[in-house]
Amino acid sequence: MKFAVIVFPGSNCDRDMYHAVKEVMGEEAELVWYENSNLENYDAILLPGGFSYGDYLRGGAVAATSDVMKQVREHAQKGKPVLGVCNGFQVLTESGLLPGALMRNKNLSFMCHQEYLVVENNETLFTTDYEKEELVRFPIAHGEGNYFCDEETLKKLKENNQIVFTYENNPNGSVADIAGIINKEGNVLGMMPHPERAVEAIMGSYDGVKLFKAMIKNWRQTYVTNA
Ligand SMILES: NC(=O)CC[C@H](N)C(=O)O
């Protein structure tokens, strides 16, 4: 499986993402600078965390307007997987690929520590290796992780089972404790916590391995006939 890790000016979790899929999972992966992008030959797109364009305006707001996002949208429309983590999640909401918005944390401070999450939906192509309601531990590292959407959107997210991860102890004020959501079609996942920083014991948790494993396994089952 071939992953593209999109690098914007100011991305800083791109190497972590690359390390997770290339070195830990052993798949093909490339760092793709946002300007030189032809995403046609990649099976999955990873939008990493960081401070793209210095978080000017809002986290992800400027990156969302870049040309590469047109290709990410086309890739998503083909049903191929897209995972946005932290700043990547912000880019996905700002570009309208996911509903809602990420606001400043309720305490107005940058937070960086481990959090427990509940797997609410284990039927997505990213989460089939988890048990439903499994408790997993991922690091968070954000200043704008306070997920917000209006009541109607929240109702739809619940009805369509689009809430994939919630916080056990909501650290940032997110509505309905939301830590990660998926699009209605089930192939674009955005989440504030970092699964790519939880893939080896030395990182304090390897709960993120199951997420990448599921992506790879589900892709093989769909696209590789002899898998
Ligand atoms: N680690 C990150 O991706 C940080 C995201 C964003 N810059 C924020 O502070 O909210």
UniProtKB/TrEMBL annotation:
Keywords: ATP-binding, Cytoplasm, Glutamine amidotransferase, Hydrolase, Ligase, Nucleotide-binding, Purine biosynthesis
Cellular compartments annotated: Cytoplasm
Catalytic function, reaction form: N(2)-formyl-N(1)-(5-phospho-beta-D-ribosyl)glycinamide + L-glutamine + ATP + H2O = 2-formamido-N(1)-(5-O-phospho-beta-D-ribosyl)acetamidine + L-glutamate + ADP + phosphate + H(+); L-glutamine + H2O = L-glutamate + NH4(+)
One cellular component term from this protein's GO annotations in UniProt: cytoplasm
Swiss-Prot/TrEMBL GO biological process terms: 'de novo' IMP biosynthetic process
An example Gene Ontology molecular-function term: glutaminase activity
Keyword DNA repair: no
Entry superkingdom: Bacteria
SMART domains: GATase_5
Entry's EC annotation: 6.3.5.3, 3.5.1.2
CDD domains named in the record: GATase1_FGAR_AT
Pfam family, one: GATase_5
Annotated catalytic residues: C86, H194, E196
InterPro entries tied to this protein: Class_I_gatase-like (IPR029062), PRibForGlyAmidine_synth_PurQ (IPR010075)
Pathway: Purine metabolism; IMP biosynthesis via de novo pathway; 5-amino-1-(5-phospho-D-ribosyl)imidazole from N(2)-formyl-N(1)-(5-phospho-D-ribosyl)glycinamide: step 1/2
Complex and partners: Part of the FGAM synthase complex composed of 1 PurL, 1 PurQ and 2 PurS subunits.
UniProt function note: Part of the phosphoribosylformylglycinamidine synthase complex involved in the purines biosynthetic pathway. Catalyzes the ATP-dependent conversion of formylglycinamide ribonucleotide (FGAR) and glutamine to yield formylglycinamidine ribonucleotide (FGAM) and glutamate. The FGAM synthase complex is composed of three subunits. PurQ produces an ammonia molecule by converting glutamine to glutamate. PurL transfers the ammonia molecule to FGAR to form FGAM in an ATP-dependent manner.
Full protein name: Phosphoribosylformylglycinamidine synthase subunit PurQ
